[in-house]
Amino acid sequence: MVLDGLLTILSLKNLLYIAVATAAGLTVGALPGLTATMAVALLVPITFTMGPISGLAVLGAIYMSAIYGGCFSAILINTPGTPGSIATAFDGYPMAKKGEGAKAIFSATYASMVGGLLSLAALFFLSPPLAKIALQFGPSEYFWLALFGMTVMSSLGEASTIKTFMSGGIGLILSCIGVTRMGGELRFGFGWYELQGGVELIAALIGLFCIPEALNFMASSGSSIYTVESVKKTKGLWLSYIKEFWGTRLTLLRSTIIGIIIGILPGAGGTVANVVAYNDAKTYSKKKGFGTGIMEGIVAPESANNATVGAGLIPTLTLGVPGTPVDAVIFGALMLHSLHPGAQLFAKNGVIVYSFMWGLVISTLMMGVIGLSIGVITYKGVSKTPVRFLAPVIIFLSVIGSYALRNSMTDVWMMLALGLIGYGFKLLGMSTSAAVLGLVLGQIAEEGFVQAAILSQASSYFKVFFLRPITAIIIVMAIFTLLWPAISNYLSNRKK
Amino acid sequence: MAKGKHNTDRITAILVFIFSAAFIWQLRYINSPLDVLFPRTILIAMMILSVILFVKSYIRPDSQSIKDIFAIQNRNKILIGVLGSVLWLLCIPVLGFAVTSALALIAFSMALGKKEDRTLRKVVSTTVVCSVIVAVIYYFFSEFMEVQFPKALLFR
Q1: Do the Cβ atoms of B8 and A429 come within 8 Å?
Q2: What range does the domain containing B130 cover?
Q3: pTM of the model
Q4: For the CA atoms of A53, A311, A25, A22, what is the dihedral angle to 10 degrees?
Q5: Is residue B154 one of the residues assigned to a domain?
Q6: What ipTM describes this predicted complex?
Q7: What are A187's strand-pairing partners?
Q8: Are A162 and B56 within 8 A, CB to CB?
Q9: Which of A414, A404, A439 is closest to A211 using CA atoms?
């Protein structure tokens, strides 16, 4: 059945569909405000006319490449195209500023490809056992997982430790704005009922990253946003990239595994995975200089976020439990084609499901060619575009992108307000990245915290929060990550 | 501290304290204790951190945090950026998304360019480039992504 699936997808028509969908997904992912969910949802009715095999292959290709496409804007203009690329900007943008944008795109492309392919291998071979592990995760595990993600704040290095945690705190509080989970009351509304829906994550992301950057570009006196000339193409340049990439293999593998584990957990996805993987790489990698534009800082988040794609499909296909909004749309598309996710899916419609999975593999491979070409051309274009055009275009994309999220001008005003706050952060030496992390992880943390607190009323608070096996492992990992810089300093001092 | 310089740590501490106090005050309106617990814990932690930062700014001031925050390079361009963006959003309900955006892009590009570049030829080429950029992006969002833009008083 696996081979039948491959043979079915390998028609010229399907390959062409996948190539076009991969290019379209890259564009959507690269534009701040356009999400993979939005693109996949909009294409469901169109793909319905294509038949199940081609239609699902197109949706899968859009999904995989949109998650990867977020790295382009993160690297080129310090604005993550998707929340899954937040950590990519930490090293990607400094690398582009050094004139090594092509190297950054190369690292992100092949890390995404490896992450995507390994997660698809997990989808092919490890679906049933991994899905069972995912079901062991309860509210307290999610709470501690979010806290574990937040430990990355301690090592961001953008601001002093106190200011970084304050910035993270502001992000966490922003995530609390809106209707409360328990009582259904408006929290932190300050009399504005427009805030009932809370702070839209993508609008906040666009505002906090795009607007300060656009204002900085405006203030810069240079004609290009990159202060350094692009590295000249010399003989053996790409070979040196490949060699350096091979040197990151351990980080790549570890980050992919992190992406797969987090990907199969309902609700977490690439947003959490890329941050946790970056944090892990920074803690355990022998390389120094994270945040200054090193390859491992790009490889870790990019492999992790694409690893969540295949992994997220594991509970969707095997248990009928979609973990992320995109998985839910794919779930709906499967149902539209009369395919019912769950235990019987592989037995009853094996050829279609395997052709869908092979379609994802082909799309991931195509990313290596299409993505790299588009990325390098875009980098050259951005580096040559005069600032007087680029800065207002970034603001225009921010306005239109934040409006498109919910067709709401409130989101646009919120984006601009947060953008100005983000600029204030820069002036005061606070950390925008920490605030965004707080905003992203705050929702998961509070939801887990509240649900675990309710559960603890039936048993014991200590038992629910600390004594569950997975919880204990995550707590130990979080403490270890927090203490690791001090331990490593102590050990290196002792060696000397 | 030199004249015109500010201790950004102290300013941050004061602002974060006020922010936290304002948000804690807002929690009085929430009835469910579980909805209060998480944000209150964070806000209290932020208040403690701001007190620590405030005290530290006097006892052991960080030399990197002492700077003139208003001495921004090309301050006028930043002001143009901020005020222009606000005006842009205010004009959308009147002129419509596409027209406002095209005008804003042209105005920004001209304002950010060099003075000697403001010739008729440059103005025409800038207008054409900005209009094409807006048209392509607007068309992509409205036709392909099916985004419903708000109806304006004068234009769509």
Answers
A1: yes
A2: 75-144
A3: 0.76
A4: -50
A5: no
A6: 0.90
A7: A178
A8: yes
A9: A414
Residues B59 and B95 in one domain: no
Q: Looking at the partner chain, which of A214, A218, A449 has a beta carbon nearest the beta carbon of B38?
A: A449
Residues of A in contact with B26 (CB under 8 A): 187-190
CA distance B29 to chain A (A): 8
State both tokens at A467.
């004594």
Residues B13 and B58 in one domain: yes
Task: Kindly state whether residue B60 falls inside one of the protein's structural domains.
Answer: yes
Sequential pLDDT tens for chain A (496 residues): 778 888 888 889 889 999 999 988 888 888 776 677 777 877 777 777 778 888 889 999 998 998 888 888 888 888 787 778 888 988 998 898 888 888 999 999 999 999 999 999 988 887 767 666 766 778 888 888 888 777 766 666 667 888 888 998 999 999 999 988 777 888 988 888 888 888 887 788 888 888 888 888 787 755 555 555 555 666 678 888 899 999 999 999 999 999 998 888 766 677 788 888 988 888 888 887 888 889 999 999 999 999 999 888 888 887 777 767 788 788 878 887 888 777 677 777 878 888 989 999 999 999 988 888 887 787 777 777 787 888 888 888 888 888 887 888 888 999 999 999 999 998 888 888 788 878 878 888 888 888 888 888 777 777 788 888 888 888 888 887 777 767 767 776 776 6
The answer to whether residue B150 sits within a structural domain is no
Q: Is B5 on the interface with A (CB under 8 A)?
A: no
Residues B82 and B60 both lie in one domain: no
Domain coordinates in residue numbering, chain A: 2-495
Contact call for residues A43 and A7 (beta carbons, < 8 A): no
Across B72-81, b (16+ Cβ under 10 Å) vs e yields: beeeebbebb
Question: Is B58 inside a domain boundary?
Answer: yes
Q: What is the largest CA-CA distance in chain B?
A: 66
Same domain, B63 and B82: no
How many distinct structural domains can be found in chain B?
A: 2
Regarding whether B140 and B80 lie in a shared domain, the answer is: yes
